[in-house]
Amino acid sequence: MNTTLVELTRRGRANHSGHPDDEDRGSISRRRINVSSLEQLQTEMSFRNLISWRSKWNDLYILEHLSEFPSTEQVAALRLVLSTGMLQLTEMVLNVRPSGTLTPDTVLEKIQQYLLKQRSVAFDRVQFHECNQVAGQSFDLYYIRLQRIAVCAELGSTCWDTRMTTRIMSGIRDQETRKKLLAISPFPSLPVTVELRRSEEAAGANELLFRHPQRSAPSQWTSNELQILRRW
């Protein structure tokens, strides 16, 4: 009886301290990894989209507690979210095959370096300097597009905020916001620029609603007014 109590006490202390006993370790290794929520990494995926995909993979890695599994099982989980074409590319072109020392990050780094060589940084930089907000596009969608291009253009962290701010001031469609930004001295920071444009966009939509509270059907608004409301 005393022995049983001692064993239970020891087990309770071990569990409370965060160190699983043998039975718990077995349950961890047997737990099924679910990767169905993540779209497959396709061969034709661009470098720009790969960056976003890796962010989703990192989230899955955390949610599925993959760090608790052996590296071989982690890599197996990653291989399940590679399309057939991408799997063949990693094995036959990049010569990346499952092994005891291989990790998911190693595989993804090799894929990223491969895609990196397929693109032109010069082209990305031209795209960055020509990235303008298009008609009907909300500022947030424009800002997301601009950031994705900027990452691929490898602008560097030294003058990132200044270059992003300058591009936003030049690329937004709303001239009134541009005038307000140009009037700010000293040169506005990126957070100030983003917040001002968001506030102006929301104010424009609210102003329309206050001015025409009786309107409800889309046919009662002009095309320009509908664009403002949809962006908001």
UniProtKB/TrEMBL annotation:
* Annotated region described as Disordered, given as residue ranges: 1-28
Residue stretches of biased makeup (Basic and acidic residues): 18-27
- Record-given protein name: Uncharacterized protein
Organism field: Daphnia sinensis
